[in-house]
Amino acid sequence: MESFRARIVASLILAGILVALGQAQSPSSPNSSTSSGSSTSPSETDRVILKVGDVQVTESEFESGVGRIEPQADPDKESSEKDAKSRRKLGDDYASVLMLSQLAVASHLDSSPEVSRKLAVARVQVLSDAEFADLMRQADPTTEEISKYYSDHVADYDQVQIRRLFIWKRQGDTKDARVLTTEAARARAEQIRQACAAGGDVKKVSADLMKSGEGMLDPAPLLFARGGLSPNMEKVAFALKEGEWSEAQETPSAVLVIQLVKRDRRQLGQVSSYIEKDLQGQKLDAMLDDLKKKAGIWLDEQYFGTAVAPVSGAQRRSSDPPSQLQKSEKKGESNNEDETQK
Fold it and tell me: Is the four-CA dihedral 72, 75, 77, 82 of positive or negative sign?
């Protein structure tokens, strides 16, 4: 907990210093919004809750900065004492930051080259974040744009429920009868397909196959959206008719056969939030590219190197976490290796 709090405080130090510097250097700070010297009665959130010398912090200022990271109390739990200690610790930490920043100004450390550089960098970052947030608001797509994007890419939201059948293949010179040759694996896959098509209990067939060590059959169909399967499997799965089986892939370790159980499509309401993010990202990228061109940005390639080429879709997919198919194939390879060692 202490290490976590230390990281929180460290992230707030810069913001605290900037606030304190601005207040300490402003000749009107005693009568500013951080002062309680107003002739009107302060509202509940404008009451001063923290003082460090002449600098005063109101409740609303604290809550909008440091206070928002305070854990919210659970009314169903008796944790008021713990919450109070956490809030007190945050208050003590923030007061320490303000105190140290005031001492830094009094010692003219804000005029040192190193601190001046850091303050300048912090100012650039704060302004950059503010402009980026404003650009994101400008890039928000309209309801009409989201609906049109969905209509133009409706096939992208198709999804399939498939049942996968893996039959492990013999690798090397293993003599284990449970690990089949390619021909025997295909014959076994066809036998299981026929058993399922004849109305057999799929869960029992799956359990028996798993027990035999010859392969794996999904006892219940799995749902995959477009892009969720390997390219070869996706091509086969989305080309099948409901109820049909087809060999989808063969690897050195397994024969894979799939059955299309059901095919449907996600509706606009289910994907609108994803489309909104995609469109916002596209519009934001275009806006940033346009701004960069207008700004006349130039980088010395001798120092920075040449521009990095965009990552292709295939490269992105190769860096994605392993799919269920890949995990199953790895499991099959591991099973075969274990059997070979025996």
Answer: positive
